[in-house]
Specification:
two-stranded antiparallel ribbon, mainly alpha, about 675 residues, Glycosyltransferase, globular, 22 helices, 3 domains, three-stranded antiparallel sheet, single chain
């Protein structure tokens, strides 16, 4: 490599980088919605479709053509061994497989078909229905395929607890809270919907239904929270069987009011699938007919989350237009699109119009704070997302509008900053939706075997806020920022990486931290930074890219290990360049990988899941020691208690950002980089 000597080879390489950037920019130009936003599919596992099918049967809204298309999609996701998994190329997951099998059978698929036989063999080989997670058993109980006595007890009276009391609903994460409230009705009223005799799934039981043990498994420990809460569940079960409950009516009325108040304008609850479907079931059980405006709006709202064609019907668990738009805008601007362009001006105005100025649940822990955040979805005023808000501010910071409009932009930024500062947790970090949501004993309740119950601070979210403050000109002398940086440093792994809660995984966490620390003027020659650089370089694949399996959340041997992907390669490149490594051969190889894997459409193919809804530790953070086989909370590479996501735009705006920053830094340093193979 020659410095300050533009050879023909280097000129050609620079042209390649520029061409790749231009192609991707054109992709975003073509795919911007008229209103100014970007939005692409958010892919999860097929329980979304299976549960939607079951919901339509429960609510007597079955559509046989929809069921055909749902079945087609579920079958396309089936693995060779007959199972279904939580993410692309995941090992088979029992609960996911049971739900898919049941949905197919209810839709009329013959149990003797080869794909059903293979599914059944897999399910029985790993324990059958009795070994599924609590939420799967609840779905089966709703249709008489599991006994309600084999589910936890959660009385509606929980709703009456004040916010200072242990186990009040605001101690749970926002998504768990939205699920628990309707579950208080479902787990006490025990509704059951009839199904045809030919749809029953007795064949998925290793023993007969009569021989099956329906009791909740008792924790092995002699004492501690799991044992205490197990006995609390037993006591509550006894209470629930008492015929008189003087406070139940009051509690159920409060649940109705809460659910009505928390329904979003698009009909959803929390903008995500689980609270949504359970709220519809609970309200239906409480006497709300399908022609009631709340039910009608709720059921019809799924239309905005569905992707349908002639052969498939896909139900997204959530949608991400704000996240997609702010990250796309950041990448476009950094890659050279003028802020004065109509594309950026339109997206900026759209983002400004999405700022949430209404109160939400977060005010329980941040009393007296004015709203000012942004949500993930089109509609979710109750739960603005701290991570989204930080990235929106980064997107807005570099743009200028007309003088009349720019005052509004500045006002929006200031309002959001006040909101974000009020939501900083005591340890210096930021969570996704709440502050100090970290009561770990809640993860020990029998109900909590699937889905994170807590929303504590995470390094990746905190790093995004640190980067935001840095880009706004703040230094580490600013006390909240210093506390955040100290938190990040404390959380570094022994090998130099950082855990990524909301992206896969250590590449994501490390890819968030190094740009953040550089943005606030950190000395990037420090030992802890160099350790992170070494870790990234050591985990580069032979093809020049980086990748990491979702299985890394459960298997330490997979940290930073997996097939190369465009998004994870980009995160690694952004981290290395932030650490001053733009001339590092590892960076050159990563850029070669991105250029070489770009499609003719200016995009990248990425079937692998690189996003995490949650990793499945129940407490929202990586435990000091992963649970061992047989212990509560143990999960293998199937991530049975997790929820993985494939954001279909990650493969585009992250590479664009990385290539744009590479071009800019190369020019700034005066280096002419030869990236030719």
């Amino acid at each position: 490599m020659a410095l300050n000597t533009p050879t023909s080879a280097n000129s050609a390489a620079a042209h390649e980088v520029g061409h790749a950037i231009a192609m991707c920019q054109d992709f975003f130009r073509r795919n911007q919605f008229e209103e100014g936003y970007w939005w692409a599919r958010l892919e999860a596992n097929p329980t979304m479709e299976a549960e939607y099918l079951l919901l339509t049967h429960f609510l007597d809204k079955a559509d046989k053509e929809q069921w055909r298309k749902i079945s087609n999609y579920i079958l396309r996701q089936q693995s060779e061994d007959g199972s279904w998994g939580q993410y692309y190329e995941a090992p088979g997951d029992l609960s996911t497989s049971v739900e898919c099998y049941f949905a197919l059978k209810l839709a009329g698929h013959c149990p003797e078909a080869e794909y059903m036989r293979k599914a059944r063999e897999f399910i029985l080989s790993v324990g059958g229905v009795p070994q599924t997670r609590v939420f799967t058993k609840i779905w089966l109980a709703l249709f008489g395929q599991w006994d309600w006595k084999g589910t936890p007890t959660m009385p509606p009276e929980l709703m009456l607890l004040p916010t200072w009391a242990p186990f009040n609903i605001y101690e749970f994460s926002s998504w768990a809270r939205g699920t628990i409230v309707p579950m208080l009705v479902i787990l006490t009223r025990h509704p059951t919907c009839e199904i045809p005799e030919w749809a029953v799934i007795d064949e998925l039981y290793p023993l007969s239904r009569e021989e099956t043990d329906y009791s909740l498994p008792e924790p092995d420990a002699n004492w501690g929270w799991p044992k205490i809460l197990y006995y609390v569940d037993q006591i509550l079960g006894f209470y629930d069987r008492i015929p008189i409950h003087p406070l139940r009516g009051k509690a159920e009325r409060k649940i109705i009011d809460w659910l009505k108040d928390h329904q979003e304008r698009d009909g959803s609850w929390g903008g995500i699938q689980p609270p949504w479907v359970y709220s519809l079931i609970a309200l239906h059980q409480l006497g709300f007919e399908m022609d009631h405006p709340v039910m009608e709006q709720g059921f019809n709202g799924f239309e905005g989350f569905v992707i349908e064609d002639d052969e498939t019907f896909i139900v997204q668990p959530c949608i991400s237009p704000v996240w997609d738009t702010c990250l796309a805008q950041i990448a476009l601007v950094e890659s050279g699109i003028p802020v004065s362009s109509s594309m950026i001006q339109k997206s900026t105005r759209w983002l400004l119009n999405r700022q949430i100025l209404e109160p939400g649940d977060w005010q329980v822990r941040a009393k007296g704070t004015e709203p000012g955040g942004w949500s993930f979805e089109f509609e979710n005023v109750q739960y603005p997302d701290i991570d989204d808000a930080a990235e929106v501010i980064i997107a807005l910071a570099s743009v200028r509008l007309t003088p009349e409009e720019d005052f509004r932009r500045q006002e929006a930024v200031e309002r959001c900053l006040n909101w974000l500062l009020a939501l900083q947790s005591k340890n210096g970090g930021w969570a996704s939706f709440d502050k100090d949501n970290n009561r770990k004993y809640l993860a020990k309740i029998p109900f909590a075997d699937f889905g994170e119950m807590l929303d504590p601070p995470s390094v990746d979210v905190t790093a995004h806020l640190v980067e935001m403050f840095g880009k706004l000109g703040y230094s580490q002398e600013f006390a909240p920022l210093k506390r955040a940086c100290d938190y990040i440093k404390r959380e570094q792994e022994a090998d130099g990486s950082w855990f990524g809660r909301w992206g896969v995984n250590y590449i994501y966490g490390t890819g968030a931290v190094l740009p953040a620390m550089a943005a606030v003027g950190e000395d990037m020659s420090q030992v802890y930074i160099r350790q992170a650089v070494d870790w990234l370089v050591d985990h580069q694949n032979y093809d020049g890219g980086w990748g990491e399996s979702c299985g890394s959340y459960a298997d330490p041997n997979l940290h930073g290990v997996g097939p190369s992907t465009a998004s994870q390669t980009s995160w690694a490149l952004l981290a290395l360049m932030a650490a001053g490594e733009v001339d590092n051969p590892a960076v050159h190889a990563g850029v070669r990988f991105l250029i070489g894997s770009q499609t003719s459409e200016g995009c990248w193919d990425e079937p692998h899941f690189t996003g995490a809804g949650f990793p499945g530790y129940l407490m929202g953070e990586r435990p000091d020691e992963l649970p061992k086989p047989g212990e509560r909370g143990h999960q293998g590479r199937n991530i049975s208690a997790g929820f993985m996501i494939n954001y279909h735009l990650y493969r585009n705006y992250w590479p664009l950002l990385a290539l744009g920053r590479f071009r800019k830094l190369s020019a700034t340093t005066g280096s002419y980089i030869n990236i030719a193979s």
